[in-house]
């Protein structure tokens, strides 16, 4: 697999990370029983797992459209273009996410906390996804499973 193809596929990471987080939350809840949100453990699990999962389920249509558009714009471009796009994509998508949620009617009662939360989670998840993608790319490249020329090295 080429490095560029890997970077194209890594656009799915922002959808997959929250899905894994949601499954982890369900797994923890199944082991410990129902976790109440007003306990310290419950609050930690809520903000680490449940909120990002639910938020990303809601915003997935907007993200997939955003990612598809970005990948179309990057088609045929070198790896360096994907690296540059990865730097600007999280803040660009934060704007898209706020607009999308606003169009759906979220945050009308108290817009400032809503915008702050949406932008914060978009940036955290976005840059975490970029980090996971580039660390994975480096590890897979060092092992020879991803190469610059389109086929994995033997």
Helix content: over 70%
Instruction: Using the CA coordinates, give the radius of gyration.
Output: 18 Å
In percent, how much strand structure appears in the residues? under 5%
Taking all residues together, what is the mean pLDDT?
A: 83
Keywords:
single chain, 154 residues, mainly alpha, 78% helix, 0% strand, flat
Q: Would you kindly provide a written description of the structure presented here, covering whatever features stand out?
A:
The chain is mainly alpha-helical. It has a domain of 95 residues. It contains five helices and no strands. Helix 2 crosses helix 5, helix 3 packs across helix 4 and helix 4 packs antiparallel against helix 5. The longest helix has 35 residues.
Q: Quick gist of this model?
A:
With 154 residues, the chain is an all-alpha fold. It has helices spanning 3-9, 13-32, 40-74, 79-104, 111-142.
């Amino acid at each position: 697999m080429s490095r560029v193809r890997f970077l194209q596929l890594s656009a799915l990471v922002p959808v997959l990370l929250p899905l894994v987080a949601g499954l982890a939350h369900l797994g923890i809840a199944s082991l410990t029983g129902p976790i109440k949100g007003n306990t310290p453990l419950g609050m930690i699990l809520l903000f680490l797992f449940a909120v990002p999962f639910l938020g990303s389920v809601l915003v997935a249509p907007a993200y997939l459209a955003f990612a598809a558009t970005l990948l179309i714009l990057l088609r045929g471009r070198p790896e360096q273009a994907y690296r540059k796009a990865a730097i600007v994509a999280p803040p660009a998508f934060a704007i898209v996410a706020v607009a999308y949620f606003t169009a759906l009617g979220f945050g009308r009662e108290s817009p400032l906390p809503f915008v702050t939360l949406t932008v914060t989670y978009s940036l955290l998840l976005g840059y975490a996804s970029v980090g996971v993608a580039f660390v994975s790319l480096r590890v897979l490249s060092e092992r020879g499973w991803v190469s610059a020329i389109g086929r994995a090295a033997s």
